[in-house]
Specification:
seven-stranded antiparallel β-sheet, alpha+beta, Jelly Rolls, 13 strands, four-stranded mixed β-sheet
């Protein structure tokens, strides 16, 4: 295991595969690769592993951009009124102020998720629990109770709009067919 010091970013650092501070959050494994401490909160990066059918709550970051690069497996990324299919090697961008969510389509799907600034880390630390192992936590027995998450999200720059899964039905009816995550702003040529 690599030893990291609070001032590591000033000198550069190496994290081997599976290294970084790990958390279990809403049925996912999330590993901090670049923390807010490393960048004075300016940006951050996490690696997330997700089982099929799981994902983030429908949410919006009023002051934080979020980007998503798929390492392994496949995800569906909803952003605003668009549904994007992201196989390995695909990228999606969720600008601040635009509601979004993601759902893993394959078991053990992995992605890098970046944030600028890195407000989400506060939510991860407050809601997540330190991962006992670098594996997915036990599956959730029921959808998470959104009530207690709302004020935690608000304290950490995120407005939670709905539970994990596709956007609420009111918006889902407006979503077009899945667009490939390539070229022409995510639309098929």
């Amino acid at each position: 295991m690599t030893v990291v010091f609070p001032e590591r970013a000033k000198h550069g650092y190496l994290l081997e595969k599976d290294e970084g501070e790990a958390f279990w959050l809403l049925g996912m494994l999330e590993i901090l690769k670049i923390s807010s401490e490393d960048t004075n909160g300016e940006y951050g990066l996490i690696e997330v592993t997700v089982r099929a059918g799981d994902g983030s709550p429908w949410h919006v970051h009023p002051d934080e951009d979020e980007w998503f690069y798929v390492l392994e497996g496949e995800f569906t990324f909803y952003i605003g009124d668009r549904r994007l299919s992201l196989p390995a090697g695909s990228f999606a961008f969720g600008p601040k102020g635009v509601p979004h969510t993601f759902i893993a389509e394959t078991d053990g799907a992995r992605a890098l998720i970046g944030f600028q600034p890195f407000l989400f880390e506060g939510f991860l630390r407050e809601v997540g629990e330190p991962a006992a192992e670098r594996v997915l936590p036990p599956p959730l027995e029921a959808p998470p109770d959104m009530g207690p998450l709302l004020p935690i999200g608000a304290r950490n720059g995120m407005e939670i709009l709905g539970p994990p899964g596709p956007p609420p039905r009111a918006l889902a009816g407006q979503l077009g067919r899945s667009a490939p995550a390539r070229g022409m702003g995510g639309r098929a040529p």
